[in-house]
């Protein structure tokens, strides 16, 4: 399942990215900051990720 393509997260207000991040956190995905100043989300089973 894919809610948004990475290109749709681009933008200057970050509102959509925050909503997606909140939804992933509720679903149990873990989050880490990366060296590129982005956030990496990893699913519980570690088979999927989003940055």
Write the layout of secondary structure elements.
Blueprint: H1 15-26, E1 30-33, E2 39-42, E3 49-50
Antiparallel strand pairs: 1-2, 2-3
Question: How is this structure best described in words?
Answer:
Helices cover 24% and strands 20% of the residues. It has 51 residues and is α+β, with helices and mostly antiparallel strands. It has a three-stranded antiparallel sheet with strand order 1-2-3, with helices on one face.
Q: Count the E strands.
A: 3
Strand content: 15-25%
Shape: flat
Order of helices and strands: HEEE
Task: Round the mean pLDDT to the nearest integer and report it.
Answer: 81
Radius of gyration: 11 Å
Number of helical stretches of at least 4 residues: 1
Strand order of the largest sheet: 1-2-3
How would you sum up the major sheet?
A: 3 strands, antiparallel
Specify the structural class.
alpha+beta
- Detail the poorly predicted runs: none
End-to-end C-alpha gap = 16 Å
Q: What is the helix content?
A: 10-25%
């Amino acid at each position: 399942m894919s809610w948004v393509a990475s290109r749709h997260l681009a933008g200057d207000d970050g509102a959509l990215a925050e909503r997606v991040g909140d939804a992933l956190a509720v679903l149990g995905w873990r989050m880490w900051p990366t060296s590129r100043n982005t956030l990496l989300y990893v699913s519980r089973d570690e088979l999927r990720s989003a940055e």
